[in-house]
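Researcher: Checking consistency across runs. Here is M20 family peptidase again:
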Amino acid sequence: MTCLHKYVHTACALACAGAFALSAHAQTLSSTEQRIAAEVKAHAPEALKLLEQAVNINSGTMNHAGVRQTGQLFMREFAALGFETRWLDLPAEVNRAGHLLATRAGTQGKRLLLLGHLDTVFEKDSPVQKWEWRGKRVRGQGVNDMKGGDVVVVEALRALHKVGALDNTTITIMFTGDEEEAGNPKSISRRDMIEAAKRSDIALSFEGTVTDKDGHATGTIGRRSSSMWDLHVTGRQGHSSGIFRNASYGAIFEAARILDTFRREVPEADLSFNPGLIVGGTETTFDEANARATAFGKTNVIANTATVAGDLRYLTYEQRDRVHAKMKAIVAQHLPGTDATITFRDSYPPMEPTEGNHRLLAVYSQASQDAGLGPVTAVPPGQRGAGDIQFVAPYVDSLDGLGASGGGAHSPNEELDPASIGRAATRTAILIYRLTR
């Protein structure tokens, strides 16, 4: 059931729960910052209404109309806060809906880039429920990943606007329409984001907040890349009775040797690699675009071909280059009568955990502690996958994971703690206030 008293009940509970914490730490917030925190709490019912509206619009990446409709919802919110808004269309061949861009210009403080995304993994025919209360938590398509984070951006900026703290600031907001499956080529689908980063000093992204073992929020100062590799193996075809004797081990044994050696010799910290598809035999096809393969072979024939497609995730380019060299060396140690080659393709760049990112996290953590919300620690970079912030991290100090808290992302059980919106918006608003003074 969804009705107004649900919102009021939840919002009041959040306000009461947070009142003691804020009063105990009020001396660490300036009078303006106290007003900002109070505005976030006062607007809690409206924040949940906005989130419900967004979640009930299906915006699967390939539902372009739904992505644009969700974008229009947030564009209205930003326009009401004094931002200039527009929709950035992408070329037809990219086959994506485009992006929301909102800007305001000033001369005061750091120039900020705020990132979110409008799309979800749930396409138009998804059986996953829309907005649904489950006790004190809510479920729905993209409620955690990441429409909750998008609402955090709105609510933080709304609180700043209410106290006049957005005046003379430079803030760019980009909510992409294809984060879950970025359009290709990425030189086009992420061009406007990169250009925005080059005009900014700091980037903040609002993917979901992960809590640590003590229940405190965390921030993301590093994320691993997303890249792919393709292994192509050939062998000398012949009668199976001659395998090993006639100097031919066949393509499948060679592929198995390579993969097992990868497993034993390549692993290191913050690195993962996964062979996601393998096909082998005497006749094979591999449709890379649709990730499909077919094979024909006989048990009495030595296989003459095998193909493996996998992914590789690394934290730094130095790690990438070292691992590429190690994998190539393993591939080159052919079994008799076989040959093999491996190729690599980068997709998302890594977000390296730089000193600048560490310093930004420290400012964010101080804002959280001053608001009575506890310290913010860093998520181990190896625990986060790819995200939009990685395209801008090479250009500016960056911090991710500033959104709401939930669980079950990308599953029918995706859910959110509604109270976390207020906590995240408070931390974010105070952080933005301090960065733009």
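Researcher: Does this match what you'd expect to see?
Model: One thing to look at in this run: Residues 1-27 have pLDDT under 50 and may be disordered.
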